[in-house]
Structures are given as C-alpha cells and as structure tokens.
Amino acid sequence: MKRLTSILMTCALLCFLVLTGCNSSQGAKETASNQSTGENKAQGTKMKLVEEGTLVFASSGLYKPFNFKKDGQLTGFDVDIGNELAKRMGLKPKAVTNPWETIIQGLKGNKYDAIIGSMSITPERAAQVDFTDPYYISGAQIFVAESNNTIKSKEDLKDKVIGVVQSSTFKVLAEKYTKKIKSFPSDVYALQDLPPGRLDAVITDKMVGINAMNEQHLKIKPVGELLYEDKIGMAVNKGNTELLKQMNKALADMIADGTYEKISMKWFNRNILK
C-alpha cells in the first residue's frame, strides 16, 4: 500500500513539473514575442540610415568654401556642419560627393542619408525631399566699395551705375533703380570694379560677395537688406521623419550654444544665418 501511494505521489509530481514547464515555456515565448514586437515598434521610430551608426551626407564637392577638396580631403563649411551634426546625434560622420545635377536622385536611391550641400529650399525640391530648418541665408545683395558711404539701401541706387553678371535675374532687379547697368561675364569681375570706382554698386548673391571679400580680399561691403531671400536647407528622403527631427534638434542646439557661429566665423568671418 505504501509502495502504491509512493508511486501515485511520484506520478502527480511529474505531471505538475511537466505542466509547470509547459507554462514556463509558453510564458517565455510570449515574453520573447512581446519583446520582439516592442523592438519592431522601436525600430519604426529609429532613423533610417544607409550605414548603421553613420550619417552619410553628400555635396557636389565643387562649391568653395562650402564644400571642396583640399589635399584630397573633402572640407568646407557644409562639411563642418555635417560633422558636428553627426557628432551630436551620436553618429559617425561620412562626407561624400555626387554630381549636383543628380544629387536628389542619389538621395532617393539611398546612396546617402542627407544632402548637406548648400541647397536652396524651393517648392519644386520640397515636393521631392524633406528639408530641415534653414542653416544659412543667402539671396540678392547690394555690394559697394568699402569707402562708399552714400549708398546704404536700395533707395540710394537711383540713377547709379550698377554692375551685374550677364543673363542673370540680378539685371532685372537693377532695372528697377537705374538704366546705367553694366553686364559682366562673372560676378567677381563686377565686384573688382567697385574699389576703383568704375561702378557705384553691384547686385549679386550674398555669399558670392562675401566669399570675394574673404578669398580675394576685395575692399567691398554689403549694404541694406537682401533684395530677396534665399533659404538654404539640408535635405533627407520623404518620410525619414526621425532623421529630420534629430538633425533639426542638433542644428538648434548648435545655434543656441554658439558652435554654429564659431563654424561660420571660421569660413566667413560672420554669422551667415543672420
């Protein structure tokens, strides 16, 4: 009798252990399933990157001083901005080049994560890509000789001799103020005629003029407000919302703590977001 009782107790214990094991196994499966679902949800909010842990960003590499090659290395204002953004986002920066005429197609083809290459924000481009907040401002600017104190705004351009690059929209702007317009094959040639007094003013892109001041040490200066504004942004693929969000946050933090201005001063001796 005792032997039978012992056998029955042993069987009951084995059944209990089997049932407990099944429940534990099922619980583990459910836990794993829940964790997997959670990870998938998390992945849905992660940045979509071409290379894990890396921010790959593109420019033409031919737009000095914004992006160009020096001693075989890609450098410039755009590159410094991209490197700093990546660092603040906890990513490794990787600057690459792509021909400008196909740079948006390269982004759509996932050759890189972002375009940081001095791209103007336009409705046509915004239909294809998502833009960050502007990271610098350009546009049509009046430049005069450094010694010129008579022209301080667009109102002072009336009947003055104005230089513009030929076949440009700047000529249309100049025609609003004077008939004395001289056309040049390049903006730089026009700007070079300001210090000797052969021109009263030049209307050109703000950054072209500033670059001439820094690179060629021309004794010229910008005056008045922009005749029209050109906002420059960084582009990411449509729908890559988390990447866009983090780039905007990193940019805002750079501006707030003064890092942006340091980079801008390095290349232009001024804050080009203002």
From TrEMBL:
One of its GO terms (molecular function) is ligand-gated monoatomic ion channel activity. Residues 1-27 form the signal peptide. GO terms for cellular component: cell envelope; membrane. It is found in: Cell envelope. Residues 54-271 form the Solute-binding protein family 3/N-terminal domain. Gene3D superfamilies: Periplasmic binding protein-like II (3.40.190.10). Residues 54-270 form the Ionotropic glutamate receptor C-terminal domain. Coiled coil: none annotated. Keywords: Signal. The keyword Transcription does not apply. Its main location: other. The keyword Transmembrane does not apply. It holds the Pfam family SBP_bac_3. PROSITE patterns: PROKAR_LIPOPROTEIN, SBP_BACTERIAL_3. InterPro entries: Iontro_rcpt_C, SBP_3_CS, Solute-binding_3/MltF_N. Belongs to the bacterial solute-binding protein 3 family. This is ABC transporter substrate-binding protein. It comes from Aneurinibacillus thermoaerophilus.
